[in-house]
Amino acid sequence: MNRIDQVFEELRASGSTALIPFITMGDPDIRTSVDIIKTLVQAGADMIELGVPYSDPLADGPVIQRASERALRHRISIVDCIQVAEDARNAGADVPFILFTYYNPVLQLGLERFFELITSKGISGLIIPDLPIEEDEEMRGLAEQAGIHLIPLVAPTSHDRVKRIAAKARGFVYCVSSLGVTGVRSDFHAGIDEFLQSVREAASVPIAVGFGISSREQVERFAEQADGVIVGSAIVRKIEEALPLLAEPDRREEGLQYIHDYVRDLKA
Amino acid sequence: MNQVPDQQGRFGKFGGRYVPETLMNALLELEEAYQHYSKDPDFIREVRYLLNKYSGRPTSLYYAERLTKHLGGAKIYLKREDLNHTGAHKINNTIGQGVLAKRMGKTKIIAETGAGQHGVASATVAALLGMECKVFMGEEDTKRQQLNVFRMNLLGAEVVPVTSGTRTLKDACNETLRYWVSHVEDTYYILGSVTGPHPYPMMVRDFQRVIGDETREQIVEAEGKLPDYVVAAVGGGSNAIGIFYPFVGDESVRLLGVEAAGRGVETLEHAATMTKGKHGVFQGSLSYVLQDEYGQVQPAHSISAGLDYPGIGPEHAYLKDTGRAEYVPITDAEALEALQLLSRTEGIIPALESAHAVAQTMKLAPTLDSDKVIVISLSGRGDKDVESIMHYLGGEPGESH
Predict the structure, then answer these.
(1) Is B181 near chain A, with CB under 8 Å?
(2) What is the pLDDT, as a whole number, of residue B244?
(3) Taking the model in full, what pTM does it have?
């Protein structure tokens, strides 16, 4: 059984919602990413999205753009990012890992080699924001074969596409809370409740909400309608704020604690 | 050759729609509207009218006699897109898409720009059609092309400086797409080249093919035959596709795309996507891309801001891989030399982009007999570049890019 399904099953039994943090791999460096992942798990993360930094992150706002730039300064590759999953698990982070990557790094690695790698390093799911259903056939076939979930995004503008997307979804359906790029915001799309309801009706897998979620109130609001809540930019910003601490060996723990407290508070 | 693109927007394996789900319905709606209006006589008439009466089409096909004599070989004709309103071929596309946006009921348009030519052409059409207009331009480029920023402001458009990434055209494109994702419900994106997700590469080609359609008719009238070579500069590739497309079925006509080699293809500072790039997905479509081994897109360099782009339209990738067109690199220095030669022999100062096509012709023409005919797409005039050319030729340190 895929670990993502297992976690959702356990959460459903206990009546709770999955907290799914996103972080950019290699921001500020790979070793720190592993430590942050451990911290996130300790703070209550149920699964983690490992973001592959990319030179042209079309779906991302300024916070994740900056994180990607920082990571790419020391030439982090998609192979390094996948390796983080294994390193983090060896360090005790026992949660499902979802790789979040734009399509081109996957394409350049070659789909076969990519699936060999993610399978052997213990990745359970994949999110590829620039691969809509019209383009994902080959990827979906290979993911199915490998037992890895290809998690699709649906948006408030998806309308009649929701059914087709949800029907093919594995793991969960990633519902985009608002139009626009990733990043903290106070307003969600006006029709968000109807939108989530329509996804719920169409999907046979769990649904999770992401984009713009940064506070405990928002997490609670969506916990009523969704099986999971994804928090990305808000955590990446906390990491950005903690960078000076993380850079100093004797204050590193303090930096990790800063991230820990923020995430624990989201969950509480 | 088969009709391209297919239903999925594929030119062979190239093209497609690699965009966030949020944009998919907007692209489908655009495709549907375009399919509808491109067959609507009323729409066709309005676009035709504006091209003729507003922009001044048809542009002339001019026999460059003194250049021909100077080079000593094939007869050289210039397709004078520089004579269009706003000074370049870009307006062919912005008129088409502007009228389409209006028919679709959109009131706001957005556009990306590198040197500012497409931005100016978009701002112009927005003023003409009474629409709001925002132009995204890399912060670096707003500094390099201050006059064009002012020109767009005069036309009533807002210029948004882009501070992400390389702060040039590539990131202006990213930022325009990001803005569109957030405002997709009331905003029309006028993409300026044959790049991006389907239906843009097809639609922009269809609006630019007027260059090639006119050329074909004019050269037959002048020479009684088709040309032996058609030469055009390629960045994203819209003027090149525009002039190539009507000749694709004529196997005797050789199609030559000229890309920017910057400081040389052996250096890291070039925009030679076809010569040095690999297949990859970039800004919505599969094509050739300048990238590293792990798929990170590399910054491009060219003296010409319009060619300073690490991608290229998917139809060009298709023409290259099927062998129908060839793509060759021209350096900054060669382009500058060609710009000066054309200025002195013909009294025409070409845009730096178009000077790349002239430079390739300087190599090609002397190798051919005098009964051969070359047509150059002179895609734009050089007025916008005069200041930076002055810096280059004066060898001042503040050279642009």
Answers:
(1) yes
(2) 98
(3) 0.96
